[in-house]
Amino acid sequence: MKRYRQIAPVMISDFTAEAWHHPVHNHNHYELIYIRSGKGWHTIDGGRVAYKAGDVFLLGPEEAHAFEIHTRTRFIYIKFTDQFIHQQGATATPGVQSLEYLIKRRDTHLSGFTLPATDRHTVKAIFAVVSSLQRNVAQAESIVWTQVLALAIILQGNLPELQAATRPERDMQAMFCYIHKYIYTPDKLRAEVMASHFHTTPDYIGPYFKRHAGVTLREYVRQYRGGLIRKRMESGQYSLKSIAAEFGLTDESHVRKLAAG
């Protein structure tokens, strides 16, 4: 499979096509794709999703995709790397947390986002701003960043809450999404709080999670939180104090301990 590689932290592409000339491919970056006009099919990891004007897709590096264009389509892309996320995010914001959550919530990558009319209008305006910056993107990275954060907040705000289901794989997907959403709020990740959310008991949820995930609930939370913290520290853009405050940690030594794994 072809893999497209991007060196620049962020790139913008606005183009119109009557036929799709790229093979099924993946990337080394993330892609926010806006359908400005047109319709057709979007193939993502072997599944097919109909697209139309106003739709938004978020793809991670490993998702393989291609388009099948039925009517002339205008695409607007924001392509960005992990470097872009963490060199821009010097101050933790709800937008950064929303973006990290969207990146982890893989079910949205495979289906795109369903937005109400008011948000579709706002998203259209945001992508118009993004498109206007494509010839000067290197000098306008901070402006692009604010647009990405605004999009992340809007997109997360339209996601349904995943609830436990009758199938273990759906149960686990719901649990992972819950953890990723509340990773910045330690009290929400206590076994008794999660058990109440999923209508079970603290004595059951821990063994259930370990049986299906292969690690304990506490270890998964620790590993995921530690990975996010390491990315912030490696960027050099965050103070230990700000990281501790963002993740609800008691002090800077706790931050260092989690980052060390």
List keywords for this structure.
261 residues; globular; alpha+beta; Jelly Rolls; two-stranded parallel ribbon; Arc Repressor Mutant, subunit A; 2 domains
Radius of gyration: 19 Å
Number of domains: 2
**Which overall shape is indicated by the principal axes computed on the Cα atoms?**
globular
Could you name the CATH homologous superfamily of the largest domain?
A: Regulatory protein AraC
Please report the first level of CATH classification, the CATH class of the largest domain: Mainly Beta
| Measured distance between first and last alpha carbons | 34 Å
Task: Output mean pLDDT.
Answer: 88
Q: Please identify the structural class as seen in this structure.
A: alpha+beta
Regions with pLDDT < 50 over 5+ consecutive residues? none
Number of strands: 7
* CATH arch. level architecture of the largest domain: Sandwich
Q: Give the number of helices.
A: 11
Estimated helix fraction: 40-55%
Largest sheet: 5 strands, antiparallel
CATH topology of the largest domain: Jelly Rolls
Taken in chain order, the helices and strands follow as EEEEEEEHHHHHHHHHHH
Q: Estimate what percentage of residues fall within beta strands.
A: 15-25%
Describe the structure.
With 261 residues, this protein is of the alpha+beta class. It has helices at residues 82-88, 94-104, 106-111, 117-132, 141-157, 168-181, 191-197, 202-213, 217-235, 240-246, 252-260, and strands spanning 2-4, 10-17, 25-27, 30-44, 47-51, 56-59, 65-80. The strands form two sheets. Strands 2, 4, 5, 6 and 7 form a five-stranded antiparallel sheet that branches. Helix 4 runs antiparallel to helix 5 and helix 10 packs across helix 11.
